[in-house]
Amino acid sequence: MSKSKNWIALTCIFVVLIMTLVLGGCSSQKSGEGQQSGQPQEQRVDYPTKPFEFVAPAGPGSGWDTTIRLVAKTLGEKNIVNQPMPVINKPGGGGGVALAYMQEKKGNPYEIVVYSPPLLLINLTGQTQLSYKNLTPLAMLINDFGAFAVPKNSPYKTINDVMEALKKDPKSVKIGGTSSPGSMDHIQFLQAAKAAGVQDIKNIQYVSFQGGEGLAALMGGHVDLLTTGMAETVGPMQSGDVKVLAVTAPERIKDGPLANVPTLKEQGIETAFINWRGLFGPPDMPDYAVKYWADALSKMSQTPEWDEVCKKNGWTKVYMGPDEFKQFLDKTNEEYKTLLQDVGLYKGQ
């Protein structure tokens, strides 16, 4: 082979090597950019690869605990999520303890927490500087409603009996709830009392309990009325230990054991209080995880099993994806702020 041909061959080999290095570098750079920006790679088949941690911001038996455990159960039974979803309880501060805990999990795609109105209220009442803006909305799942229950031997036979007693003396009826003062259970009763024409609602006695302690206090005679979520009253109502005087739904519950309980509006008290519930991730949850959970929860909400769960607990099924849920939270936060200002409990900035 001549020197000229050798030179040409060597040149060709050199060019091929250079192009290989350049193209390889570009591919590596693009791959690195995808990882840094949190974009899915190959549809993120590597997620999820380990157990999740589901967080209930209150004790066992609470509305939050019931909701997230039933979500985990349905997702698992339908094989929508193929990783374990153990639930841990982080009670305290009307949800504030769990909210602070989620800040420690910033960016973690394996942390999920359930919340409802107290997530907004504990910020608006000044109990914490953290708010819903310090979490990643994933999906609203249900609308629940409040319930007002009394012991089976209570002298109060209707919710109007309670309101008439409070009109005469705002301190005459001791109210118990499973949320902190100024949070959901408290606010839903104050809203009803205000609509019923009770004056000096700031003087109504309210005692805060954790988890299932409220029902025990009610049946033990330590409080006269329990303001709580509907699901928490179903068991003791069916056993005959308590009587549910009213629910805060805008319309009569159509199915289940609470179908016989009148609404506030049916008894002449023109108000309703909706307890929405949804799931959130920690702050800065990766986009691929948000999409995964939005899709998984959407699938779950369309199953007959979830329909049955909602029917049994008296929940209204309402699915909102991340963007719509965020818009709802922004709007509702302003509405809660106005209500708290009306009763003198707003302490936000």
Structural summary, described in words:
- The protein is α/β, with parallel strands linked by helices and 349 residues long.
- It has eleven helices and ten strands.
- Strands 1, 2, 3, 4, 5, 6, 7, 8, 9 and 10 form a ten-stranded mixed sheet that branches.
- The protein starts with a helix and ends in a 7-residue tail after the last helix.
Q: Which strand-content bin applies to the residues?
A: 15-25%
In round numbers, the mean pLDDT is: 87
N-to-C series of helices and strands: HEHEHEHEHEHEHEHEEHHEH
Low-confidence stretches: 1-44
So what's the overall shape?
globular
H/I helix tally: 11
| Approximate helicity band | 40-55%
Number of strands: 10
Secondary-structure topology with pairs:
Elements lengths: L2 H35 L15 E4 L6 H15 L9 E3 L6 H8 L7 E5 L2 H7 L11 E16 L7 H10 L6 E3 L6 H12 L10 E3 L4 H7 L5 E5 H9 L3 E6 L26 E8 L5 H15 L2 H10 L2 E5 L1 H21 L7
Parallel strand pairs: 1-2, 1-3, 5-6, 5-7
Antiparallel strand pairs: 3-9, 4-7, 4-8, 4-9, 4-10
